[in-house]
User: Fold this.
Amino acid sequence: MKSNKVKRFFTLQRKYLCIPYIVFFILFIFAPILIIVFYAITNEVYDAATNTTHIVLSGQPFINFFTDPSKINVLFVSLFIATITTLICLLIGFPLAFFLADKQVNKNAVLVTLFVAPMWINFVLRTGATRDLLTWFGINGGTHPYLATIIGMVQNYLPFVILPLYTTMTKLDKSQIEAARDLGANPTQVFFKNIIPQAVPGIVSACLMTFMPTMSSYVISDVLSEGKITLFGNYIELEFTNKAWNDGSFMALIMLLFIAVAMFISQKFGKDDEKEAGTSW
Amino acid sequence: MVKKIFGQCYIWLILILMYLPVLVLIAFSFTEATNVGEWTGFSFNLFPRLFQSAEIMTALANTVIIAISSSLVATILGSLGAVGAYYSKKRMRNAIDLATQIPVVNAEIVVAFSLTVMFVFIGNIINTYMFSFWTLLIGHVCLSIPFVYTSVKPKLQQMDPSLYEAALDLGASPSQALGKVVVPEIMPGVLSGFLLSITLSLDDFIVTAFTRGSGLLSGDKKIETLSTLVQAKIKKGPIPPEMRALTTVLFVIVILAVIGVTIYRNQQAKKIRVRRAF
Assistant:
């Protein structure tokens, strides 16, 4: 009886361990998001009579975004580069993950580690290395900004595609593939009607792990296009340098909307794959 | 057979392409030319020049200090959070799980920008300049804390709950049971969370560039980490020669780490095999 009471008392205690975590989240994850929402729907107005500035509720950041062709351009260029990068990463990464997971081709788990290992060399340094190499080959940001940027993005985000795809590929139901073969499907049919549908969760999380970071990236596009290509990340950075908090917040809010959509998609298709990929390295 | 050869060729081709920029940089770390692509004779001079460069060494030291301190904070808070959430009611636990997903999927630039705007906002209210080492530390903890949580959580779920009860029945006090039963069980998760935090912090550019103030080894100037220093350099021109030598050093460390991990994994696998054999 007594031990039960003690147990109940301590059960109450143990859950309090997460209080610092919750407080940290409220202060530094949720509060900043609320503040950018606040900044995105307000504007500072200068009052000449009293020589002060007031914060007023305003649709100005919204209007500034949708009436400025350069900002709309940033949106479309970001979407374009992110789509192309994701597609190329998938085209390279899908067969790669397939071969890595195939015991006949690759018996060596170290190879998978080698594909992730470049991530441990400083990311800015790697981007610089790619740029210097491309410049040596004659592809520099001045002449081919799009080509250089996309090469840099693929180079950087390929490991993020390989990991989730590899995890799904190792879990493919081999007997289902054999059954399809036995029932007379040719290799192309097996691939499109069996392997791809089985790999959907991996494909979805691979897409999200490439698309969102590419759209919002700053360093890669800045360095490889020599400032010629402005993505969402570059524009938010520009607003930060100009201390344009309201307009910057509105752009960050749009980015957040994209992320919310991505989160919804991953909840629907992605299952727990992303988390597993996260803990496997 | 054809598939095997084709598959292996493909794997190695992509691997070489992925490593090409770094490998070229390493090759040119043994010559003193200013640009990659020029070879002015073999020399080791870049390595002493690297270690004599006060700028790079300061940035490296700053990077390491920030990585370790932010990872410690993130690991402690994240692990406590995971343990607390595990023993909370289901609804609370689900809410914490969902909240943890937000910074995982959130874009780094949004994390950085929103934190900065908040610090500016608070700074305006209390009329002080907020940016310092502490804001930078908070920024880095924000990046890594959800990953600590997600690596500790599965360990808690795999844990046998009766172990804790058994410890209590055998006379351990609740805090002893927590320290001697729960903590060792989740330790692998805590460690991998810590390592993940370190890699995230070492690699970060955007959050650092936004949230840093003056301090640490940079003194009165803005804190310079490896990422921000390299970025400032490559914005103006090619990668400085000393940094090519730095790439070589980093690459050797990474390769040693990969070899170490592989040996460790093989040993663990052997241990499991031996255990099964008995």
